[in-house]
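Following up on my earlier thread - several people asked me to post the actual chain instead of describing it. Fair enough. Here it is, all 157 residues.
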Amino acid sequence: MTVRVSIITCSDTRGIKEDTAGAALEQLVSDQGWAVVSHVVVKDERAQIAQAIVDAADDLDADIVLTCGGSGLSLRDVTPEATRDVCEREVPGIAEAMRAHSLAITPYAMLSRALCMQRGRHLVINLPGSEKAARENWEGIAPALSHAVSMMAGEGH
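Reply from S.P.:
Thanks for posting it. Predicted structure:
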């Protein structure tokens, strides 16, 4: 099974050319042998982020939607709220694993508000906006993601 991944960078200051975290995620996804079906940058606006998640899941049929940025403590960080707006079920273990993995590297990991949720059979994962942190969080969860996609597709354990 080829896993289909969409990347949504949430930023008021970066465009696609400046999005080193999103580019790093594209490479990490490709290194898994998976397909990147889209990579977009949207403003830190709740409605825009929510719509981008819906588009990636419903229109592009991405198995995994990775958001990048907007999950910290800034008042402009609204990615978790946008994720909740359009998803039905939380998958707390993935967000917990990201924080636990990152906490071994930096105490600032405890400041993350990142979520992982399901929209139907699509997994939406909030990753940090910095390239270094996005790579570290990916490292902590990547080994379990293909199994998660299989489970969501009804293939069981």
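The first strand starts at residue 4 and ends at 10. That should answer part of your original question.
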